[in-house]
Write a structure and sequence with these properties.
Elements: E1 2-9, H1 23-37, E2 40-48, H2 58-69, E3 74-77, H3 80-83, H4 87-99, E4 103-106, E5 111-112, H5 116-149, E6 162-164, E7 170-172, H6 177-188, H7 193-202, H8 216-224, E8 232-234, E9 237-239, H9 249-257, E10 277-279, E11 287-292, E12 298-303, E13 307-308, E14 311-312, E15 318-320, H10 321-338, H11 349-366, H12 369-374, H13 381-408, H14 417-420, H15 426-436, E16 437-442, H16 448-453, E17 460-464
Parallel strand pairs: 1-2, 1-3, 3-4, 10-16
Antiparallel strand pairs: 4-5, 6-7, 8-9, 11-12, 12-15, 13-14, 16-17
Helix pairs in contact: 6-7, 6-9, 7-8, 8-13, 11-13
């Protein structure tokens, strides 16, 4: 038969021992088996750093497509658990292979699914593989509970302001710890996130990842972290008195409940819809400027200045701030009564979720009892350090997710938005509007008669987050784009 060879390793780097079969060794076993059975390996597929609990693997996907297209008679693996560890996933894959009149062969177990006994053995070994994976995960949970109970911070990164002591329990860093405590105090009295980031950079404090630059999101993640209360945690496992705290509970709560103090805005930049309201004639953002009526009363209006970096606007628009802001707010409040406003979606969110799930599965599948025994037992420091290194990749992805959530949820929007609107700062109001709308376009009308024919509702279009048309990017040379009025 013409067969494809398949190789999978859940984690390549740093692996050794009897439980680890290298990619090269898997290939040699498959090649020797095929030669002894009189079969020919026509193509090789590899999935390195891919857990068996994950059904969607690039190399395996190609191999399955080749079987279903008739390009090969089947698939051969060095061991059944290289094919998959989940009973359900393995059963689904085997069903696809049998439907395509293909076969699955395993070297170690001697399985050939072309016969009824081979099918029975494949199902049996798949069940055993899933049982083994469940045992590995249980061992990981036991190791985590043990580590947290001992006060160990189960992470590959030491939180800013701490260092690991000789017993590997966190202790305040005498140089950075005071700066972190001062950071909490500053936030507690309302210092803005951007000022806090500048404070850390001026103090020379680096992030747990060694970055000298602090973002608003990374500062927010630090302030929300309960490790500074003396807690050690891993998932739902918590030790509230694991190490010496840097701040008290009152200081932590004050920092997390504080509203930032925003600087006063000038008349030219104090428009509620600044950055959201755009001229339909050119797609550029409109500027808010102050002026006076003919009776001397102060007024605000949004204007499209004709000359742009991308050319000249063919139909520059002007509108009173009170008119357009009232219209947009009425729409916003009506919307908030039906649903909580959704923030702008991160295009990589689904990818991040998949990467995080794969990293967690890889971590769980890689840590089994044999590895613990080889490293001196589940309570040994060497084993726990290994756990931390396996956890580091998961922590990195969790850090990214936390930063995304911090940026994606700058303000809370709910059904009672209209009741609390006046209590929000101007900056918070803008954040709410930006979280709900990509843009608000308004068309020009020629005179008062035309304005009566086309009231504000007819010449304004609101686009929800992620649904707006392309617009010029701030700081770049944009292009004039006229949006037609439907």
């Amino acid at each position: 038969m013409k067969l494809d060879g398949y190789i999978r390793v859940s984690r390549v780097a740093g692996r050794s021992g009897d439980s680890f079969i290298s990619p090269g060794e898997q290939k040699e076993r498959v090649r020797a088996w095929a030669k002894g059975q009189g079969h020919r390996i026509v193509k090789w597929h590899e999935d390195l750093d891919q857990p068996g609990s994950k059904a969607n693997r690039p190399g395996l996907n190609v191999a399955m497509e080749r079987i279903e297209s008739g390009a090969t008679d089947g698939l051969v693996v060095a061991r059944l658990d290289r094919f998959g560890r989940s009973v359900q996933d393995s059963a689904n894959l085997l069903a696809r292979i049998r439907t395509a009149d293909g076969v699955l062969c395993t070297v170690a177990e001697g399985i050939d699914t072309s016969g009824y006994m081979g099918k029975f053995l494949a199902d049996l070994f798949s069940a055993l593989g899933e049982l083994e994976l469940a045992r590995m995960r249980e061992n990981w949970d036991t190791a985590r509970k043990s580590a947290v109970a001992r006060g160990i911070h189960v992470s590959g990164r030491v939180p800013t302001g701490y260092r690991r002591g000789e017993n590997r329990v966190l202790e305040p860093d005498p140089e950075v710890g005071p700066a972190v405590r001062e950071l909490f105090h500053l936030r507690g009295v309302g210092v803005s996130w951007s000022q806090l980031a500048s404070f850390l950079e001026e103090k020379g404090v680096v992030t747990p990842w060694g970055n000298e630059h602090w973002t608003i999101a990374s500062v927010g993640h630090l302030i929300r972290n309960r490790v500074y209360l003396g807690e050690a945690r891993s998932g739902k496992i918590v030790n509230p008195n694991a190490h010496e705290p840097i701040v008290t509970l009152e200081e932590w709560q004050a920092a997390n409940n504080a509203h930032g103090v925003h600087p006063a805005r000038s008349g030219k930049s104090s428009g509620l819809l600044s950055g959201v309201l755009r001229c339909a004639g050119c797609s550029y953002a409109m500027r808010c400027s102050s002026g006076k009526t003919r009776h001397g009363k102060p007024t605000l209006e949004y204007r499209c200045h004709p000359r742009k970096s991308g050319g000249r606007c063919p139909a520059p628009t002007t509108v009173k701030a009170s008119l357009i802001e009232s219209f947009v707010l009425d729409y916003l409040f009506a919307f908030s009564k039906d649903a909580t406003a959704q923030t702008k979606s991160d295009e990589g969110e689904s990818t991040l979720a998949a990467e995080l799930a794969a990293a967690e599965a890889e971590r769980d599948a890689a840590l089994d009892e044999r590895l613990a025994d080889a490293l001196g037992g589940s309570q040994s420091d060497v084993y726990l350090r290994t756990l931390e290194s396996r956890q580091a990749q998961v922590d990195a992805l969790l850090e990214v997710r936390a930063e995304n959530e911090q940026q994606r949820e700058p303000a809370e929007v709910g059904a009672d938005l209209e009741n609390v609107w006046e209590d929000l700062t101007l900056e918070d109001k803008r954040r709410v509007l930006h979280s709900v709308f990509d843009s608000v376009f308004i068309w020009r009308v020629g005179d008062k008669k035309a304005a009566r024919k086309f009231p504000i509702a007819k010449r304004t279009r609101l686009f929800f987050a992620g649904q707006g048309p392309p617009v010029p990017v701030r700081g770049g040379r944009g292009t004039i784009r006229t949006l037609p009025l439907d």
